[in-house]
Amino acid sequence: MSLSNDGLQSALAGWTEQIWLECLTFEHASLGSPIRLVNDRADLVRTAGTFTAFPFEFQDFTRADDQSVIAMITADNVDQQIMTALRGITGRPAVTYEAVLFDSPNTVERGPMEFEVLGFQSNLTTISLRVSFALSFLSEAFPKDYHAPWNATAI
């Protein structure tokens, strides 16, 4: 997706008054409704819904030769709502990441990027989520069952 004129100017400027906001949307069949979060101090109303103010950091992608692309989301553990929702989910919830400008919150400047939650850890202060792009059949091994030295059995 290409940037809007305002987004491009603020991204290339040495200094700008534009405020970039990051938005996360958690979705799963067991959730009554999606959980929407914005990395800001105030809630954000968009056409997609109301995004609740929640401090988090999206750490961009890392990749190794033997692994898929992984990103990290680290959030302050200030509200038990997120932990309660994550613990109640069986399977992998979907997470959508978007970056918008404060002045035009309905124009997505970066994204949407859709991920699956691979796992999470928490302590008293933070929640860390490992996310990866949603796997498709193109990411699966073919054939499903194959023989290799590491799974061979002795005769």
Explain what this protein looks like in three dimensions.
There is one protein chain. It contains two helices and nine strands; from the N terminus they run αββββββαβββ. With 155 residues, it is mainly β. The protein has a single domain, classed as Roll (Pnp Oxidase, Chain A), CATH 2.30.110. It has a nine-stranded mixed sheet with strand order 3-4-2-1-7-8-9-6-5, with no helix packed on it. Strand 5 and strand 6 form a beta hairpin. The protein is globular. The termini are far apart.
Give me the oligomer status: single chain
Strand content: 35-45%
- The helix-and-strand class reads mainly beta
Number of helices, where a helix is a run of at least 4 consecutive DSSP H or I residues: 2
Strand-helix topology:
Layout: H1 5-12, E1 20-27, E2 35-38, E3 44-46, E4 49-53, E5 56-62, E6 70-76, H2 80-87, E7 94-101, E8 104-122, E9 126-133
Parallel strand pairs: 2-4
Antiparallel strand pairs: 1-2, 1-7, 3-4, 5-6, 6-9, 7-8, 8-9
